[in-house]
Structure formats: C-alpha cells, structure tokens
Design goal:
Layout lengths: L16 E7 L3 H16 L5 E8 L3 H11 L3 E3 L2 H6 L5 E4 L6 H10 L3 E5 L6 H15 L5 E4 L6 H11 L6 E9 L16 H4 L3 H17 L3 E9 L4 E3 L3 H4 L9 E3 L5 E8 L4 E7 L8 E8 L2 E6 L5 E6 L10 E4 L22 H16 L7 H20 L9
Parallel strand pairs: 1-2, 1-4, 2-3, 4-5, 5-6, 7-12
Antiparallel strand pairs: 7-13, 8-11, 9-10, 11-12, 13-14, 14-15, 15-16
Helix pairs in contact: 1-10, 4-5, 5-11, 6-8, 8-11
C-alpha cells in the first residue's frame, strides 16, 4: 500500500488523503462513522480522512449503512476490504472473536489499524496483535485500540491535573460502570452473551473501559486484583430477526448464557494505591452510568459520564473553612480538544469522543508515531481482565460466615 501522497490530495483541501475502510456497521460502526466524517470538518488535520469502504455480511444492510453514513463503497467480505488498494487504514468494529484475525491481516497488508475495545478475546490473541503491531511500526504503520472515554475533555483534563501533581500521591481509585439492558430475562441471547463471540460479558464490555480509564488517569498500571463475578439469568430466548435485528436462529427455545452479567473486583496499583471496580448490566434504572473518583494526598477528582462536561475537584490544601468539591465546567478553549469547538458553556456529547479519537489517530499516522492507547495498552488491559476471571473462578467457593 502506498502512503498518502500530496499529489493525491482530497478535493478542496490540498491535503493527502487517509482512506478508511471500516469492518462493521452497527452501533460502533455508526459512532466511528460519525468520528471519521466530522474530525476533518472541526480540526485542522494533517491528512484528510476519507470514508472509502464499509464492510458487512448483509449486502443490502451494509449498502443502506453506507448511504446513511456517507461511505463511498461497500464489501461483504472483510478480506476483500483489507486487500483493496484504496484503503490506507482498517477500522475494526466487529465482535471480539474477529478482532485478532482482521487486525493481523490488515497489518500484514500494510494498513494502519484502529480496533475497538477490548483488543481481543484472549491474552494470547492480544499478544499476537502486539507483535504484529510492533513489526508494522517498523514499516511506518500505526495500530491503536479504541478506548473512547479517554477522549472526553473532562477525563483528559483530569489526566493533566494528576500528571501535574494537583492531587499528590494517589491513595484510592473507585470506579463503576452501570447499565440495565439485561434486566428483562426475556431479552434475547445476542452475541454479547456468548463467550465464543464476546470473550466475556460485563467484564469485557464495560470492565475494559473502566480498567483502562482508571490506569490512564492514575498514570500507572494495576499490579493485582481480587474478584467476584455472577451470571444472574443463565438461559435466554434464542434471537430472531424480529427481536434482535440479527439473522433468525430459532423461532422458539432458549440458549445458555456463557458470560458474566456482573463483575466486582478490587485492585492494587504498582504504587500501592487501592482501587475498586464494579461493572454490571443489571443496575435497574442505569443506562450508561460510568463514574470514577481518584483520592490523593493533596486532593481529589471525580467524573460522572452523565455529567460529561463537568469535572469535580477538591483541593485538599485549602483551609477547611471554605474547602470542598468544586465544579469545573470543562468547555474552555484551553481545555483538551475544545479549542476547535463551541464558545465556553456550549457542551459536547458522547459522539464527540469518536471525533477526538479520529483526530488523535490521524495525527499519529501523519507523524509516524505510536498512537495512544496502543495495542500494547490494550494487551495490558486484557491481562487485567484475564486476572479478574482467574480470581473470580478461585473465589467462587465461599467460606460461610458463622452466626
């Protein structure tokens, strides 16, 4: 694959093109499409992202997605997309069981790669992906994993404040990610509830996000964990086109849920700071409730995704007579990412994290550097998830508490 050249500039921009091929077109495909379509219209990018090809197995559905989101061409086989000469970067938005295969093929074909989280379904797959990414980096190719919550301006500001020492030495991190879309026991057995496709349940779906966010904000890795997991509804109706939007499997009957519904675990960072994590899809009334708090010797920070444009900060060095948590409205032009958006006070939303993700990756590609978070970062999260599963299995037998 040839690198984008100045002579191949996108019409009206005078900039080299970065031609994107995306595999997958459902929820994450729509979010990533928004990011690629918008980034170059907001930020002054060194390359012009071009929505070249979108891929999905259903020809009519992927054509409809292409028309809706603005993709120029379609494929029904991801291998054909990877082989195309008009694709510079492959964006992987598929279930976890295909991440490794697609990423390895794309890197071998000389493409840059963006892969949705979690990086893979197993540590072994993630390790192979990191090896391939390292080899590709020597040839000038980049590989990034998509942890979009790093791209919320408030969390990026929190990371800056921690790095500046505003809360001092870290003591505690507590983080939760709560949803409720599985509360109804009649919800069908989709791919997210099958280990062979999803790898794990709430742990990989939600836990991957909060592990990465906790480590990103803390600026250090977890060194050990102790965990519990539970599956509350172990059999669910088999999906049909009417109930799930998926291809029909059966008109009746149930199938086994083979992943966790909820995960609770504690952890210790390399510095000795303690952490607690909760990930569940059974928190009735909670739709997408992610909250993280960091306590340090000099202060604390707290972020709530339901108040996405706000960061709470307590300066522990202030006199107690007027100290307390204060609300920072993260909309100023000198806050992360916000110099290109709206006047102060005009908030952003969930979809903007994918615009920022596209922006950061385009810069990494243009500058020939390893993007953040890298495949190595994704592997580190995968190792934490594996350690949580191992601990939960060992902790599955309880010691009775005497009356």
């Amino acid at each position: 694959m040839a690198q984008p050249q100045a002579s191949e500039g996108a019409a009206g921009t005078g900039k080299p093109r970065l031609r994107v091929g995306m595999v997958g077109y459902a929820f994450m495909g729509a979010a990533h499409s928004q990011g690629w379509r918008t980034a170059g219209r907001v930020f002054d990018l060194p390359l012009h992202p071009e929505l070249a090809v979108i891929c999905g197995r259903d020809a009519s559905a992927v054509r409809a997605a292409a028309d809706w989101h603005g993709w120029a061409a379609t494929e029904t086989d991801w291998r054909a997309l990877v082989e195309r000469d008009d694709v510079d970067l492959v964006d992987i938005c598929t279930p976890g069981d295909s991440h490794a295969e697609i990423a390895l093929a794309a890197l071998a074909a000389g493409k840059h790669v963006l892969c949705e989280k979690p990086l893979a379904n197993t540590v072994a797959e993630a390790e192979a992906m990191v090896r391939a990414a390292d080899e590709a980096a020597a040839r000038g190719r980049t590989a990034m994993v998509g942890f979009n919550y790093r791209r919320v301006p408030a969390t990026a500001l929190a990371r800056r404040m921690v790095a500046e020492g505003r809360i001092g030495t870290l003591r505690h991190v507590r983080v939760s990610y709560l949803q409720d879309w599985l509360v109804d026991p009649q919800f069908p057995l989709t791919w997210r509830l099958r280990r062979e496709q999803a790898g794990s349940g709430s742990l990989g779906d939600l836990g991957a996000h909060i592990v990465d966010l906790a480590q990103y904000l803390a600026g250090e890795h977890l060194a050990g964990v102790s965990a519990l997991t539970e599956t509350f509804v172990r059999h669910r109706p088999l999906p049909t086109a009417a109930t799930s939007g998926l291809a029909a499997v059966s008109a009746a009957g149930t199938g086994e849920v083979t992943v966790d519904d909820a995960a609770l675990f504690t952890g210790r960072f390399a510095s000795g700071a303690l952490a607690s994590f909760e990930a569940t899809r059974y928190a009735t009334g909670r739709k997408n409730a992610l909250r993280i708090e960091l306590n340090g010797e000099r202060g604390s920070l707290a972020f709530d995704l339901e108040r996405l444009n706000e960061l709470s900060y307590h300066d522990g060095t202030e006199p107690g007579t007027h100290a307390g948590f204060r609300r920072i409205l993260v909309t100023e032009p000198d806050h992360p990412y916000l110099d290109a958006w709206w006047p102060p006070g005009h908030g952003l939303g969930y979809e903007h994290t994918f615009v920022h993700q596209a922006r950061d990756l385009v810069h990494a590609v243009a500058e020939g550097r390893t993007p953040d978070p890298s495949f190595a970062d994704g592997l580190q999260v995968q190792r934490v998830l594996a350690a949580v599963e191992e601990s939960a299995e060992k902790n599955s037998v309880y010691t009775p508490i005497a009356a």
